[in-house]
Design brief:
With 428 residues, this protein is mainly alpha-helical. It contains 15 helices and no strands. It starts with 6 loop residues before the first helix and ends with a helix.
């Protein structure tokens, strides 16, 4: 029998699932629409607002099962199962496609970030020539480390890496806060650290100003969606929670998303206050290769990404087989060839793309908008319409307001997906 999680453990795991490498792209999201400290106010407001919407959608997913009249002890359906029941099996491929594209975009981000981290770490270690080439290092790590790990039958051996990821995020968060203080060497003209980074990576303030009302704010909106995206696992979090009553799950959702939003705000604020309009798509790239704190952060992030990568590849393969081989047996040879194809494609694209922030924002704009804002709300509207028609749910003012709110979420998701993706591409 599967062991249930305490509320504290569940909150920790929810934060761990939410906070990934995408959080380090958030400072660039702010820099997309301003380079003055006053821009942080609108940026923090956007993060808090989107965090609340994301928490609402996450909390709604177990409600989609319980509104059908089942008791609190019944298993919660996944968003895919709920979609099939209420919307229809004919369109269920949409969910499977999102299950494929979302981890695919995240894995591509991981590859790009690994390339940058490995290249900078090689410079910090004093390597030169071929051995300092970030492209060569990425290919080498993919062939010698990632491919064998992705073929493991069980990923249980990688579980300690998740703890490294959480600890690494905390250490990096503290380091970035320290480097954002007025005494930071990055903010002192002529300091050795400042002189050791490229001109375009150095702090830049007051050139663009505050453009918080410009469409470019959608870049941050899109990135925020990626850093708050864990909704496909909502049913697992509820089913694994001890005494998973609606009240207990509400606490899990509230605390988990509040802590996630807090970490996001700290990292994006610290990075922006240090480098302003010069923030790169992956903020750790801004820091000097001779900075010991940055080197430690890069090393921990790189280890975390390598350990987490096979989990993403497994999710990609599972979704791909669901689309292409549903109900059919997948041979071991075909699975290995699929792994080679996925890793080869991801590595090839990562070698050609340098800006991880673009991938993070596009993934959030399109996939995040559908998964967070559209899919749960569409299911809720279909479910409540059916229940009211069957006389199992009484129409009320509260329900009418919530249904209207969900219609707005569906529309907002579609607009963010379209205009967000368009603005991101135009920015490039």
């Amino acid at each position: 029998r599967k062991r249930k999680q305490s509320l504290g453990s569940a909150i920790f795991n929810l934060v761990k699932a939410n906070v990934g490498s995408g959080v380090f792209a958030l400072p660039a999201g702010i820099a997309a629409f301003g380079d003055v400290p006053s821009i942080l106010g609108p940026a923090i407001a956007v993060m808090c607002f989107l965090g609340a919407l994301s928490a609402y959608a996450f909390y709604m997913i177990p409600r989609l099962t319980r509104l059908n009249g089942v008791d609190d002890n019944s298993p919660i359906k996944s968003i895919s199962a709920a979609w099939e029941q209420e919307v229809g099996k004919d369109s269920a491929w949409l969910i499977s496609l999102c299950c494929l594209l979302t981890p695919l975009g995240t894995a591509l981000t991981f590859s790009i970030v690994m390339k940058d981290m490995l290249g900078t770490l090689a410079k910090s270690a004093g390597l030169t020539g071929f051995f300092a080439s970030k492209h060569a290092l990425l290919v080498g790590i993919t062939v010698s480390v990632l491919y064998p790990l992705c073929n493991l039958k069980s990923l249980a051996a990688l579980s300690p890496v998740s703890m490294i990821g959480v600890v690494g995020t905390i250490i990096t968060c503290l380091y970035m806060v320290a480097r954002a203080l007025p005494t930071s060497p990055y903010l002192q003209a002529g300091s050795e650290l400042l002189k050791s980074i490229p001109e375009t990576y150095r702090p830049s303030f007051g050139i663009v100003g505050n453009n918080s009302l410009s469409p470019s704010i959608l870049v941050l909106v899109s990135m925020a969606a990626t850093s708050l995206l864990v909704h496909f696992s909502a049913h697992d979090f509820c089913n694994d929670l001890e005494d998973n009553s609606p009240e207990r799950f509400k606490k899990l959702t509230g605390f988990g998303f509040s802590l996630t939003v807090l970490i996001n705000i700290i990292i994006m604020s610290a990075g922006f206050l240090t480098f302003g309009g010069a923030c790169q798509g992956m903020i750790l790239n801004n820091y000097s290769s001779i900075d010991p704190g940055a080197t430690l952060s890069r090393l921990i992030v790189a280890i975390s990404l390598i350990g987490s990568f096979p989990i993403l590849v497994r999710a990609i393969k599972s979704a791909f087989f669901e689309l292409s081989h549903k109900g059919k047996q997948v041979t071991e040879k075909f699975e290995k060839n699929t792994t080679k194809t996925i890793l080869g494609a991801l590595t090839a694209i990562a070698l050609a793309v340098d800006n991880a922030g673009v991938v993070v924002s596009l993934n959030g704009a399109v996939m995040g908008s559908f998964i967070i804002y559209a899919f749960p709300s569409i299911i809720f509207l279909k479910l409540t319409s059916r229940l009211m028609a069957e006389g199992k749910l009484q129409k009320s003012r509260k329900l009418s307001i919530e249904r209207f709110f969900n219609r707005c979420l569906v529309g907002s998701g579609a607009l963010i997906a379209f205009f967000g993706a368009m603005v991101i591409m135009l920015e490039q």
